[in-house]
Every structure is written in structure tokens, then in C-alpha cells.
Amino acid sequence: MATYNEKIGAVAYDNLIADTHVKQIVASGTIAANGGEFKRGTVVALADGKLVAMASGKTPYGILCDDVTVGATDEVVEVYLTGKFNKAALHVAAGYTLTAADIQTLRNGGIFVENVVE
């Protein structure tokens, strides 16, 4: 007999997505070997064709969809290219803070960064 009320999974709300009315488009990218740990919500930039955490002198590209630890080999990851995100849930490289210019660049690409009241 079929079970129609079986729990098959759960999603924990992590406060990254600010609104679902802006369509989220996702693409894949590559983080170079030995990149270390990246958290979901990390703003990434492209450097030599590979994704790196947003830092000074870089141009923001997208937002990392999932946590990942990059070891000895390159890691293919998914990146949000559009959507509406909570500024407080975003991560960047250590010692760096997103600037107004970074947020404007993301916005021009279809990523809206908002201050969300919890």
C-alpha cells in the first residue's frame, strides 16, 4: 500500500534568501584546488576563470549555493546568478566588507542585496 504522508526530507531556513519573487538562476563554477572552506552565501568573484571569495580588487560574480570544502582537487559548485538575498547572511573573504559599489555591481547583474528584519 502506498504511503502518502511519509516525510522524505526537510529544509532548514538559513535566512539567505530574502524573497522568492525574484527568480533565482543558478550556474556552475569551479573553485581551485586547496581553496579551503566556503560557506553557503559566500559572495564569489572570478579570478583566472576560478571562483574565489570576494575580496579587495575583485568584481563580485555570484553567491555560493552550498557549503563546500575544497581539498586537493578543483571543486565544481553551484552559484546563484540572480535572486534577492539577505545582506546579513552573506560571507566574503576574511578582513573584507562588501562595499556599496560591490552591492551595485551585484544588482546590475540581477542579484538584489537587502537588509532583512528578522
Description:
The chain is mainly beta and 118 residues long. The chain has one helix and ten strands. Strands 2-8-6-4-5 form a five-stranded antiparallel sheet, with helices on one face. A three-stranded mixed sheet has the order 1-9-10. The protein is globular, with a radius of gyration of 16 Å. The model has no long low-confidence stretch (mean pLDDT 92).
Number of strands: 10
Helix amount, in percent?
Answer: under 10%
Low-confidence stretches: none
Distance, first to last CA: 43 Å
Strand content: 35-45%
SSE pattern, N- to C-terminal: EEEEEEEEEHE
Query: Could you describe the largest sheet, including whether it forms a barrel?
Result: 5 strands, antiparallel
Number of DSSP helical runs: 1
Structural class of the secondary structure composition?
mainly beta
Strand order of the largest sheet: 2-8-6-4-5
Oligomeric state of this protein: single chain
What is the 3D form?
Answer: globular
Radius of gyration: 16 Å
User: Could you report the average pLDDT, rounded to the nearest whole number?
Assistant: 92
